[in-house]
Amino acid sequence: MSEILEVKDLSVSFDTYGSEVKAVRNVSFQLMKGETLAIVGESGSGKSVTAQSIIRLVPTPPGKFIGGEIRFNGEDLLQKSEKQMESIRGKEISMIFQDPMTSLNPTMTIGKQIAEGLMKHQNMSKKEAHLRGIQLLKLVGIPTPEVRIKQYPHQYSGGMRQRAMIAIALSCNPKILIADEPTTALDVTIQAQILELMRQIQEEMGTAIILITHDLGVVANTATRVAVMYGGKIVETGMVDEIFFEPKHPYTWGLLGSMPKLDKEQEELQVIPGSPPDLADPPTGCPFVTRCPYAMNVCGEHMPSDTSVSSTHEAACWLLDERAPKVDIPESAIVGGNDIYV
Amino acid sequence: MEHRQLKEIDFEPLHLKQSEAEKIVGESTSYWKDAWRRFRKNKLALFGIIIILLLAVLAIMGGPISGHNYYENQLLEANQPPSGTHWFGTDNLGRDVFARTWYGAQISLFIGLMAALIDLIIGVIWGAVAGFFGGKVDEILMRIADVLYGVPYLLVVILLLVVLPQNLWTLIIAMTITGWINMARIVRGQVMQLRSEEFIMASRSLGASNTRILRKHLIPNSLGPILVTLTLTIPSAIFTESFLSFLGIGVQAPLASWGTMSSDALPALQYYPNQLFFPAVFICLTMLAFNVIGDGMRDALDPNER
Amino acid sequence: MIKYLLKRIGYIILSLFLIITVTFILMKAAPGGPFASERASTPAIEAQMNEAYGFNDPIHEQYFSYLINAFTFDFGPSFKYVGQEVTEIIGRSFPYSLILGLEAIFIAISIGVLLGVIAAVKHNKFGDYLAMVIAVLGISVPSFIMAAILQYIFAIYLQVLPIARFESFAHTILPAAALATTPLAFIARLMRSSMLDVLNRDYIKTAKSKGLSERVVTYKHALRNAILPVVSYLGPLVVSILTGSFIIEKIFGIPGLGSEFVVSVTNRDYTVIMGTTVFFSVLLLVSILIVDLIYGLIDPRINVTSKEGNK
């Protein structure tokens, strides 16, 4: 598998009332052709900002890129002009958003919203774009697409709107699809359908997907690899099995511990005590130090560096240092095979 | 590894207290403190407050310090330009424009404040009752408000002024007869929205009584929009008064307001623009000041709206 | 659609009925009969006049005949201008007001929307501050003072436009501009906040993520959504232009319906007051209906036929 996107040392900040919120700090990861990379984290961990940075949709100001590179096809997207970005958005990289209720223009028919990208990037005529739109709607599983294409978003149900969003995003066969919490706003049964649709389309079209989510259940079912974000940093990355069965970072343990499981008698779900760090004034050491039950003196002072566990698995935690006491995975974070593959 | 100099001691467990993990990051400030901080930053709104205070002082002190009164005709001294004796000049009947301007300020400000205050009282009660009880009560009260709201405000006021005997109080009554509806709608909307808000439900489910909810949640939370509406009602009431007086159906002679002064000065605009200049500038300045204060308050009190 | 229209027209007739009834009661309650004012007339003549105008009939008969007349748009003769029918006065003066009003509406909407869009697109930059300074001044300067300022600058000082009266297009510029000031400023503020709100919506991000240019996103996606509040403001806009015409027509000496109304109020010319009030009401109710229909055309979410209770 070859690499299609590389994010190197990306740092993004936001200027708010007199302070600078460092939303993303030195984040690095790669995306391989045709894979699904899940970026997992709680709200405020910087996962959405990371995703929106790739397609340069972070509003600047108040946002600003502090440093780093986003290499796509060997070129740094952060160096591109706004005009150059326009020919990449929608064509090479496209995005779907969390809430299908608000992410479609209410005063424009679905057909027009699909056609716009086609007419811009593939020089289609209005008519061609209309016909292609019908095909796309059919592809994403919307019944009677000839009728539906002329309708407005409010005439669609939530699940159908997300399908239409996917149709818009995929209209120009992009190489990368960024899905920012695509199922969070949907009913559970619809969630499964949308995820299934994304998986199916990925198989057919070979699109690489970056899936932003806070839901580990979604991750287990769709992702190839996982990056866990906390406090604006990636704290652990690995193949999906490695993250679920051999997690190394206490934050990942906490996340897994807070996930409901099938084959264990659980009195209650584990919670991670405390709240995420203030990113206007991030800690010098590990961002998780204030909530970590295994924190050591070093953790507050120095940022742990990424430590390889296997060729595909890295974690940034002082516990992986040879001088640290050996800590076993807590009982609550042990996941059985049945828990994640539904 | 870059941290070679680390010692064994660094890998001792760090004993954090639970309370420290739970401590809230960032200073929490109260709503009003926060609002005041934002308002203070708004230079324009502070400027507006200073203007209003100055105008209020002049309205009270202006007449006495001028050494003239607002009604005395001195036809020999008619239409004079500003001078040492008549600071703003005199009008076509030889009356001192400076004294008249500040006397007019009293009338204009009094009517504006009074009308806004009456609108506030009726509107808050009407809207709060409708919003709090909901159902049939709400239906009836708001239907009445809707019907009244459908009729153009100034038209109603003018028709009423045809019927009512003409004095200051009937003017205020005519102005408030439908003026309160805006306030009522805002208060009702606010109360309705708050009533269904989850924190009210949470507090209700914790066994809070109606009065407690009203006192602790509804009033403090709707105070912001009420204050903003009140501030923005004052300039519109001042405008209405000057509009009616300009047409000759508002404040009647010998009383003077900025509106009547503007109206009197208009025919001689070509020759004596100074006679119109003073009342006009002060009407605009007052409305401007109240408008920027209102805007500043809205920005400060509603963090979502920016 | 037909059903909806009929229903709306039904409501309009109901509202009119209410307005006519209330004005009738108000005029009856008015102090001093129409002939009791300044003209010193003998009681005998007054009685004769009252008889001629039907004032001696029982009140309910007066009311019913008035109601019938009102719906057939016959308000009888003016009290003050002998030999002139109210309908005649309205027919003569309304065209002036209509031209002036349409011109003012055009100025208010086009410049207001433009200023608002500039302010939103240049948010927190010079263009925004300038547009908002203009807007806050526009709201703070009453139309009659704006009229005087315009007259002084353009007619007296620069002498490029006529100061008053209504004889050519040039004559309409100043009054229309004065009439448009406040609504223009209001529309600019409305448009700015609505545009800022829309530009932060998710669907704008979607449009950008499709690779559309800033210009297409702003004008094709944002503008159409952002203009909706301005469309709902059209009703109040008509009211504002109409009441503004009372004062502006007086200042500029335009023989329009607004100045006729004001004159009839100061003269206590009851038939003219009632006639113009009813006419204004019809005008407003019809324009509000038209505005609602336009709104339904622009916003596909609103289905006019099932819109009841939506507003």
TrEMBL record, chain A:
Membrane topology (UniProt): Peripheral membrane protein
Residue ranges occupied by any ABC transporter domain in the UniProt entry: 5-256
Key words of the record: ATP-binding, Cell membrane, Membrane, Nucleotide-binding, Transport
SMART domains: AAA (SM00382)
SUPFAM superfamilies per UniProt: P-loop containing nucleoside triphosphate hydrolases
Keyword Ligase: no
GO molecular function: ATP binding; ATP hydrolysis activity
Any GO CC annotation of this UniProt entry: plasma membrane
One matching Pfam family: ABC_tran
Upper taxonomic lineage: Bacteria, Bacillati, Bacillota, Bacilli, Bacillales
One GO biological process term: peptide transport
Similarity comment text for this entry: Belongs to the ABC transporter superfamily.
Keyword presence, Cell wall biogenesis/degradation: no
Protein name: Peptide ABC transporter ATP-binding protein
Range of residues in the leader sequence: none
Chief place of localization: membrane
UniProt-listed PROSITE patterns: ABC_TRANSPORTER_1, ABC_TRANSPORTER_2
Matches recorded under InterPro entries: AAA+_ATPase, ABC_Ni/Peptide_Import, ABC_transporter-like_ATP-bd, ABC_transporter-like_CS, Oligopep_ABC_C, P-loop_NTPase
Annotated localization: Cell membrane
From TrEMBL, chain B:
Keyword terms of this UniProt record: Cell membrane, Membrane, Transmembrane, Transmembrane helix, Transport
GO cellular component, one term: plasma membrane
The ABC transmembrane type-1 domain, residue ranges: 105-294
Coiled-coil stretches: none
Membrane topology: Multi-pass membrane protein
Main localization, broad class: membrane
Name this polypeptide is given: Diguanylate cyclase
Originating species: Oceanobacillus arenosus
From TrEMBL, chain C:
GO BP terms, alphabetized: transmembrane transport
Keywords: Cell membrane, Membrane, Transmembrane, Transmembrane helix, Transport
GO cellular component: plasma membrane
Residue intervals passing through the bilayer: 9-27, 98-121, 133-157, 169-191, 230-252, 272-298
Topology of this chain in the membrane: Multi-pass membrane protein
Keyword Transmembrane helix: yes
SUPFAM superfamilies: MetI-like (SSF161098)
Subcellular location as annotated: Cell membrane
Domain (ABC transmembrane type-1): residue spans on this chain: 94-295
Pfam families: BPD_transp_1, BPD_transp_1_N
Family classification: Belongs to the binding-protein-dependent transport system permease family.
Protein name as catalogued: Peptide ABC transporter permease
Organism: Oceanobacillus arenosus
